[in-house]
């Protein structure tokens, strides 16, 4: 890329969003940049700001739906040093690391606690942003502090209170990039235990291209059950289908557009509201 952008990383133009997410829909992204160190990330934000280019950071794209028109801005992914781990008094992890790799590497070094999260797709950064969780455990249970890069290039440290974790959410803004995290772990991890959780996960999670659970569970209820009770399992709009195995998943049959998925989400929501008077809240994020 011309125009004075010097970074340690990899730059691409007009990348189809289908290649960036697990649900594989969406139009072209103007710029995709994999950035490998903090200084480059700062330069990149300054470059984007100077040119008035909007940006978003993504991880593995397992909780995202890009629109069919694409994204007229810069998509940033964290690689290089953002995938590293440091074992000091506390463990410090780069937020581009894939959660499954993180847990394996921690177990090898004798740290545990995160085993129930083994197999949740995505990165540490994406996991922290949405406070991912499984089997009654959330990633917030293991986060002590995080480092954030703000749009003006300022680095800030947030403690747990400032992160504002809640059920499948944090209070972090889309413009704040989580770069590194200090973890709170127990001694004595077990890969056998982790694989046990992975096996249980694979038994209930449907195969195919999806963005994970579409809706959050409403207080005291299970979103998938409500959808199922509306008779919507296998209901299809265009190439998007409510999974017959787990009704809170929408599967792209290989031909879905983003609009098919969004129309199906709206329809499911409407049916659940009509039948139970409950408005389901999105767990996936539709990129604007
Ligand atoms: C088959 C399948 C199973 C799943 N199972 C579960 C499950 O059991 N539990 C669960 O909680 N989720 C589950 N998910 C959803 C998803 O895996 C999680 O939400 C995951 O944490 C998203 O991580 P990601 O790296 O893919 O984030 P992305 O989808 O890339 O991004 C999600 C959000 O995080 C932001 N983000 C990403 N990286 C950063 C960063 N470094 N700094 C700031 N913001 C960032 C993005 O801007 C976006 O807002 C599942 C998804 C799939 C496809």
Low-confidence parts lasting 5 or more residues at pLDDT below 50? none
CATH topology of the largest domain: Uridine Diphospho-n-acetylenolpyruvylglucosamine Reductase, domain 3
In this entry the ligands are: flavin-adenine dinucleotide
Contiguous helical run count: 7
- Rough shape? globular
Strand content: 25-35%
- What is the CATH C-level name of the largest domain? Alpha Beta
User: What is the terminal-to-terminal distance?
Assistant: 24 Å
Structure overview:
The protein has 288 residues and is of the alpha+beta class. It has three domains: 9-80, Uridine Diphospho-n-acetylenolpyruvylglucosamine Reductase, domain 2 (2-Layer Sandwich); 84-192, Uridine Diphospho-n-acetylenolpyruvylglucosamine Reductase, domain 3; 207-286, UDP-N-acetylenolpyruvoylglucosamine reductase, C-terminal domain (Uridine Diphospho-n-acetylenolpyruvylglucosamine Reductase, domain 1), CATH 3.90.78. Helices cover 26% and strands 26% of the residues. It has seven helices and 18 strands. The strands form six sheets. It has a five-stranded antiparallel beta sheet with strand order 6-7-13-11-12. Strands 1-2-5-3 form a four-stranded mixed beta sheet, covered by helices on one side. Strands 15-16-17 form a three-stranded antiparallel beta sheet. A hairpin with a 7-residue loop joins strand 16 (240-242) and strand 17. It is globular, with a radius of gyration of 19 Å. Flavin-adenine dinucleotide binds next to strand 3, helix 3, strand 9 and strand 13.
């Amino acid at each position: 890329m011309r125009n004075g952008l010097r970074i340690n990383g990899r730059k691409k133009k007009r990348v189809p969003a289908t290649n960036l997410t697990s649900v594989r829909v969406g139009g072209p992204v103007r710029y995709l940049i994999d950035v490998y160190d903090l200084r480059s990330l700062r330069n990149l934000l300054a470059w984007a700001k100077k040119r008035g280019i909007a940006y978003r950071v993504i991880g593995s794209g397992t909780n995202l739906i890009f629109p069919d028109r694409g994204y007229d801005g810069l998509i940033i992914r964290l690689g290089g040093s953002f995938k590293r781990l440091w074992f000091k008094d506390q463990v410090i992890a780069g937020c581009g690391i894939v959660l499954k790799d993180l847990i394996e590497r921690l177990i090898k070094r004798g740290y545990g606690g995160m085993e129930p999260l083994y197999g949740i797709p995505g990165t540490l950064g994406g996991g922290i942003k949405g406070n991912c969780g499984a089997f009654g455990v959330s990633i917030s249970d293991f986060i002590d502090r995080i480092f954030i890069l703000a749009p003006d290039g300022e680095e800030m440290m947030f403690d747990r209170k400032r992160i504002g974790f809640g059920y499948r959410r944090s209070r972090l803004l889309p413009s704040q990039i989580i770069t590194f995290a200090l973890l709170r772990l127990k001694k004595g991890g077990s890969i056998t235990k982790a694989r046990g959780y992975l096996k249980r996960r694979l038994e209930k999670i449907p195969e195919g291209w999806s963005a994970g659970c579409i809706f959050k569970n409403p207080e005291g209820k299970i979103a998938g059950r409500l959808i199922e009770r509306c008779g919507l399992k296998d209901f299809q709009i265009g190439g998007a289908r409510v999974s017959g195995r787990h009704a809170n998943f929408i599967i792209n049959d290989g031909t879905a557009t983003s609009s098919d998925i969004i129309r199906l989400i709206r329809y499911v929501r409407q049916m659940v509201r009509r039948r139970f008077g409950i408005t389901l809240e999105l767990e996936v994020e539709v990129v604007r």
